[in-house]
Amino acid sequence: MMADPLLHKDATVSCVHQGRAQPGSASTRVKVSGKPVVSMPVTYTVSACTLPTNAGGPCATALWSGPAKRVKAGGMPVVLSTSSSTCAPTGTKLLVTVVQFRVKGT
């Protein structure tokens, strides 16, 4: 099983339409590279999505699934940079483009 980077609060995450996504919460006690890690369950808020309303957009929120199985923060599984996500109402995914690479989990 390959280890993947843990997602932290300040990672660069966007919807596929270039909307900026931010976590609603992050662990206040567990940090990687000085940034709070994101653990489940978490809802991301998406802003500035460019998908027009008449095309089913814009992306407003997103949920993650498939978190780490062996790494937890505050008793909850952490989100990995490769975890699956789904935006609402579009059903598209989030893209993680900048994340720390020092701490990895499975």
Describe the secondary structure blueprint for this structure.
Layout lengths: L3 E2 L6 E4 L4 E4 L7 E2 L2 E2 L6 E5 L13 E5 L6 E2 L2 E2 L6 E5 L5 E5 L5 E2 L1
Antiparallel strand pairs: 1-12, 2-3, 2-11, 3-6, 4-5, 6-7, 7-10, 8-9
Write out key terms for the chains shown.
106 residues; mainly beta; six-stranded antiparallel beta sheet; two-stranded antiparallel ribbon; elongated
Q: What is the percentage of strand-forming residues? A: 35-45%
Based on CA atoms alone, the radius of gyration comes out at 13 Å
SSE-based structural type: mainly beta
Helical residue percent band: under 10%
Number of strands: 12
Largest sheet: 6 strands, antiparallel
What average pLDDT do the residues reach?
A: 96
Explain what this protein looks like in three dimensions.
This protein has strands at residues 4-5, 12-15, 20-23, 31-32, 35-36, 43-47, 61-65, 72-73, 76-77, 84-88, 94-98, 104-105. With 106 residues, it is mainly beta. The strands form four sheets. Strands 10-7-6-3-2-11 form a six-stranded antiparallel β-sheet, with no helix packed on it. The radius of gyration is 13 Å and the shape is elongated. The N and C termini lie close together (7 Å). The mean pLDDT is 96.
